[in-house]
């Protein structure tokens, strides 16, 4: 007997059973690789990313010598080098992307510039912070997952930052061609929704509404843009709460194992 899906429309549920303001299941870990300075693994639904951070480390040939997106916020500040590797098995069509792929270069540049705005790179002059991201599975909200995984790994590496940089995608329930001005916003889009609906990715700094990243690559009416941005900002609040719980759980685990003493802190002049 076929499934009667009429109740889904009446309940305004999405194709995966979520309501418009619900995030997909989040699963995250930090310190996944003991040999790295910082590492993390994050799942946002079926989008899965692994991140490894190296540095800050001094390197005399740091400028112009690395592949990937690179940026430096000041002459005497650390360079941030971002490398994104997309596995050929990460999508259904198993399309292998080269390192020089334009889409990957855009992701690397966006990540490098956004992270440079929140990291205290002036504390590490003539140094390099290398962030390597490996995409294991894609099902929508890729940029948001990359930003969140980078935040976790940088926190694990102990790189000072103003606050968590957390990201969430948002879309609209109607396409641009439909011209529906009353279309409702959606948050944390999956792959099928991203292909069919106008969408954007927004990242905020911590629990505030300060926007650190805003990427919109689809056509959408201006009247719908504000609602999409507000929905994405609300989604970022939920993502930040989860990332903070992952960091705190790891901290409690380290204290219990005796890796660090309870109450130990390190003084840094982050405003210098």
How would you describe this protein?
The structure is a single chain. By secondary structure, the chain is α+β, with helices and mostly antiparallel strands. Helices cover 29% and strands 25% of the residues. It is built from five helices and ten strands. The protein has helices spanning 6-11, 102-116, 142-157, 191-196, 222-257; strands at residues 26-30, 38-44, 47-58, 69-71, 79-86, 127-137, 165-172, 185-187, 199-205, 211-215. A six-stranded mixed β-sheet has the order 1-2-3-6-5-4, covered by helices on one side. A hairpin with a 7-residue loop joins β1 (26-30) and β2. α3 (142-157) runs parallel beside α5. The longest helix is centred in the C-terminal third of the chain and has 36 residues, at 222-257. The radius of gyration is 20 Å and the shape is globular. The termini are far apart.
Cα separation of the termini: 68 Å
Poorly predicted residue ranges: 1-8, 60-65, 266-272
Structural class of the secondary structure composition? alpha+beta
**What is the approximate shape?**
globular
Helix content: 25-40%
From the alpha-carbon coordinates, what is the Rg to the nearest angstrom?
A: 20 Å
Secondary-structure element order, N to C: HEEEEEHEHEEHEEH
Multimeric status of the protein: single chain
Number of strands: 10
Q: Which strand order do you get reading across the main beta sheet?
A: 1-2-3-6-5-4
| Mean pLDDT reading | 81
Strand content: 25-35%
